[in-house]
Fold this sequence. Notes:
42% of the residues lie in helices and 17% in strands. The chain is an alpha+beta fold. A six-stranded antiparallel β-sheet has the order 1-2-3-4-6-5. Strand 3 and strand 4 form a beta hairpin. The mean pLDDT is 94. The protein has helices at 11-22, 26-55, 112-123, 127-140, 164-167, 189-198, 201-210, and strands spanning 57-60, 79-85, 91-97, 100-107, 144-146, 172-179. It starts with 10 loop residues before the first helix and ends in an 11-residue tail after the last helix.
Amino acid sequence: MGAGSFEGFSRRALDFYAEVERENSREWWLAHKPLYEADVRAPITALVGALEPDFGVAHVFRPNRDVRFAADKAPYKTHQGAYCATADKAYYYVQIDADGLLVGAGGYRFAADQLGRYRTAVSDDLAGPDLERILSASRADGLEVGGEQLKSRPRGVAADHPRLELLRHKSIHLSRGIGDPDWVFGPEALPRIRAEWERLRAFTGWLDQHVGATEIDDRFS
């Protein structure tokens, strides 16, 4: 991914998204698009471009929302996200918004075949406890476990299954809200974000090994 060098985010990016939350209209966006391009899209593109050689193919999300089937018709996202994807489609994620920086990793949208392999692995007496240990260590390190979940248990899963909560996941990821410490806005941001992603390799490695890619185009947007 071609981009200039990453020297940290601009504080103006946070102000920009605070305004998007209040003034989410096409007219406002077009008037402020140069600021978005310079202070949001260019830095995050440079960031994932710098991380791409170590973490996989980089992608920067589009700023507009797909509102065709949404009750909320606000046209633009209130954050800018980007990711690097491993060959087996585990994702390393980074986001900037009005609150500052967020980093994470995981499987953000499992296709049907991926979900089947995920549940098989979680049910396995070796792979399942291995994931539990990874998530326990991640929580102890201050990371949050997220992802879409079923309200009830999957069909055929016993109510007393020891890993029922994990089996309810339809996607699973880890994240850490960094906020806006001074280092986010300078060159130190690159090694810091790199280090955060490195800490997530055990988790993405488990996903690569046990879930893997799908034949379906699974790039989330």
